[in-house]
Write a structure and sequence with these properties.
The protein is built from four helices and three strands; from the N terminus they run αααββαβ. It has 110 residues and is an alpha+beta fold. A three-stranded antiparallel beta sheet has the order 2-1-3, with helices on both faces. The N and C termini lie far apart (46 Å).
Length: 110
């Protein structure tokens, strides 16, 4: 096996794989982005099984609604923006997000 091939396999293994359900939900979101922008620019969309659960003011509200719909936890909650921007979340599911009223906040720019 060539060194180049070994390095490529290491890089591939180091990258987290995206679950198939999430890829499908992201494709749906991107295909419907224009309509979602009209429905609530800056708000949060909750998507389950390639269907819109709803548009919400906060991440926590959207997550709770999507989780109630999905039961499996396999949902997409994404802020409705023209262009995707990375955000930092201070709370995750394992810390009890289902019962949290915490909203996601953008990192402060320097």
């Amino acid at each position: 096996m060539s060194t180049h091939f070994k390095e490529a396999r290491k890089r591939q293994a180091a990258q987290p794989s995206v679950p198939a359900y999430l890829v499908r939900e992201l494709r749906w979101f991107n295909a419907h982005r224009r309509a979602l922008l009209k429905a609530g620019r800056g708000k949060w969309a909750a998507v389950h099984n390639q269907e819109l659960v709803g548009v919400f003011d906060t991440f926590a509200e959207a997550y709770r609604a999507a989780s109630a719909e999905a039961k499996s936890g396999k949902v997409l909650v994404k802020q409705i923006l023209e262009k995707d921007e990375p955000i930092a979340l201070s709370v995750n599911y394992s810390l009890g997000l289902r019962n949290s009223s915490t909203t996601a906040r953008r990192p402060r720019s320097a």
